[in-house]
Amino acid sequence: MTEQGGIRKSLLVSLALHLLIGVVLLVGIDFSAPKRPAQAVSIIEATMIDDGMVAAQAERLAEMQAKQERARAAEQASAEAEQKAAEEAERLAEQQQAAAEARRVAEQQQALAAQQAKAENERQQVIEQERKAQAAQKAAEAKKQAEAKAAEAKAAAAAKAAAEAKALAAKKQAEAEAKKQADAKAAEAKKQAEAKAAEAKKQADAKAAEAKKQADAKAAEAKKQADAKAAEAKKQADAKAAEAKKQADAKAAEAKKQADAKAAEAKKNAEAEQALKDLEALMGSEAGGATSSPAASKGDFDRQVALIVSAVKRNWLVSSTMIGKRCVINIRVASDGLILKVGEGRGDRAVCQSAAIAIRKTGTLPMPKDPVLNKRFQDINIELIPE
Predict the structure, then answer these.
(1) What is the dihedral of CA 268, 271, 277, 280, to 10 degrees?
(2) Residue 289 binned pLDDT confidence (cut-offs 50, 70, 90)
(3) Which of 156, 170, 262, 364 could tie 337 with a disulfide, CB 3.0–4.6 Å?
């Protein structure tokens, strides 16, 4: 019950008491008019009454009325005092009840605040656990992606090393085969020359022996002629051996040249095959992008390549010796454009080295907002031509 309600109740009680007192006073007064005789009365003789008695009687009557008035005033004062006491007691009771109600409300509010604080603390704990779980999940995904990229890079490096090793082995085998054939031909030529020289010497010795046997006089001349012939034959044999060796060396050089050309052709074919595979992969990714995202068209792809080439050329220092040459280089890029890895490149060595420096100096490349096109540009081969 509020204080206003208590005041209203006190006013109602006071008004009721005043009405009760008024009713009592009204009941004590005779408002009826004096009755007239129904019949004609006879005339009675009146006796004169003493004025003093009348005055005394009136005084007593006034005193009685005064006593009644005092009694009624005392009764009214007592009733008002009782009413005030009752109202005061009721007011105190209401104040005590209000204080108890306030304490109860305060306790409820305190308990509610404690519950809310506990609920908020639990909610914050749940949010923190979810945040930690999400952070752990993101870290695991990042680690998984990094491991996948490292595995891809390792596989690519292994494939490249295997191809280079295969080409080197083919080159060495061709060189060894050419050298073996040249050595065999040289040995055969030398063997033939030595055989011819031995045969000539044998014939000369036979002729000399026969000449000595036929005529001792002609022995010196025959021996001289024989020695001259032997010297000439040896000279011719040495010349033939030198020519054979020269031809063998020329054939070995030609064989080596052919082997180098074959190795270069094999390497060129391997690079062309790799470029074709990259192109097929690029066309395949373009076809997949066109299916999954119509917005990522070939025009968008070409425009993005042009933006990347333009960004690199702003940091590219080109010399006059590079004009007319080219380099195709692989770039690994994060989704936000950060350059992660720059490949060695295929093409002119000086151009590739200069282009790699320019790409690293660029640092961050412009990336498309389309998620499918962005994924394609995270591992891309671009062609750079000095201008």
Answers:
(1) -70
(2) very low
(3) 364
